[in-house]
Amino acid sequence: MRYLAVRFSVKNYLNRYKVITNKEGDEQLSKKDMEKRRRNNYS
Prior knowledge:
Blueprint: H1 2-21, H2 27-42
């Protein structure tokens, strides 16, 4: 459980970084990706 939480927070950090670096084009794409990953994590 704890390991999963750590992995999840690392993923969130990486996603945030990705959104900041690719702000022009890929923002919408990374948002969709985050939603998909979130769904995968909870199922």
